[in-house]
Write a structure and sequence with these properties.
- This protein has ten helices and 14 strands.
- It is of the alpha+beta class.
- The strands form three sheets. It has a seven-stranded mixed sheet, sandwiched between helices.
- It binds magnesium ion (2 copies).
- One magnesium ion (MG) binds next to strand 4.
Length: about 325
């Protein structure tokens, strides 16, 4: 047996061990989902979906980890919007695995949409997978360890399953609607902070650099600095949302991120951890809206009132009519 065969088999074994550990802790493959999505789609096997999503995220995570200190071949989707060969390779391998397991499902990936000139396909009622193979590409390029694989599943356009995996910190967040949320197999829940002035909030600076968008972002930063304990901007929408689910952050918001692949999986994780997911101005969260606010219920509700007073920039996605 050559050295490469040995390496490949060892990697496969370690991944299998990780998956066995993951499912033995909090996501038993024999547990049944009793949520209403299950009754809406009686043929959907959430156990298989979760298993395959974790396995696909682990495979992609291994690729990201292997490239972490060597990958520097950067392309530009926009002035500040980076993409690497690793993003594309990871999307391909995630799609290959999920499409083999669920050939009847629909698939939407960040890099596939980018390759179609940014045109998002029509999202239907069928089970639909949303994949961000590498959320936090700028962090990846700079070696800042706040990047992840983000996988989400919707049924009837409603997020029902999420897996977010940071290969550098070794953290896997996961949730199925109705079953709670976990971090590496252990249950997690949102924080219990109630006062805005005691809350730690995160947002993102995004990739828009026109003056009006920058002004709108800075106005939101200002109101947060004035009303919250402090503000963070670490470079990954999905990781920030999982930070809320784990109680590390009390709220997170972003307007104008890339697409539903950034937030569909994490939205399930936040909700199953006891948090709210909504529009930053307080309306209903829409998976294709490119706008999100999540947090523990008290802080999220209070922060939405503060943010609703700040006008969106003209080039930002606007709040849905209420
Ligand atoms: Mg992303
Ligand atoms: Mg990405």
């Amino acid at each position: 047996m050559g050295i490469w065969s040995s390496v490949i088999i060892r990697k496969a074994r370690s991944r299998t061990t990780r998956l066995k550990t993951f499912f033995s802790r909090g996501h038993s493959p024999t547990a049944r989902s009793d949520d209403r999505q299950g009754s809406m789609s009686p043929s959907l096997d959430f156990d298989s979906c979760l298993f395959e999503a974790v396995a696909a995220a682990s495979e992609a995570g291994d690729e990201i980890k292997a490239a972490w200190f060597v990958e520097r071949d950067v392309e530009y989707k926009g002035e500040c919007d980076l993409v690497t060969a690793t993003d594309k390779k990871c999307e391909d391998l995630i799609f290959r695995r999920l499409q083999a397991a669920f050939p009847e499902h629909d698939f939407v990936g960040e890099e596939s949409v980018a390759a179609a000139n940014g045109v998002l396909p029509t999202i239907g009622d069928a089970p639909t997978w949303f994949v961000d193979p590498l959320d936090g590409t700028t962090n990846f390029v700079h070696g800042y360890p706040f990047s992840c694989v983000s996988i989400g599943l919707t049924v009837h356009k409603i997020p029902v399953l999420g897996v977010v995996l940071n290969p550098i910190t070794g953290e896997t967040f996961a949730a199925v609607q109705g079953r709670g949320a976990t971090l590496n197999g252990e249950r997690i829940s949102v924080s219990s902070v109630t006062d805005l002035n005691k809350s730690l909030v995160a947002t993102e600076i995004g990739v828009g650099r026109d003056a009006e968008t920058v002004d709108a972002i800075m106005s939101r930063v200002r109101v947060c600095v004035e009303t919250c304990r402090s503000l963070r901007a670490s470079g990954s929408c999905a990781m920030n949302m999982c930070g809320v689910a784990a109680g590390r952050l009390d709220a997170f918001f972003e307007i104008g991120f890339g697409g539903p692949w950034d937030c569909v999986g994490a939205a399930v994780i936040v909700r199953e951890a006891g948090g709210l997911v909504m529009d930053p101005h307080g309306g209903a969260f829409q998976i294709t809206g490119r706008r999100v606010l999540c947090g523990n219920p008290q802080v999220a509700t209070k922060l939405a009132k503060v943010l609703a007073a700040v006008p969106d920039g003209p080039l930002e996605p606007h709040a849905p009519a209420r």
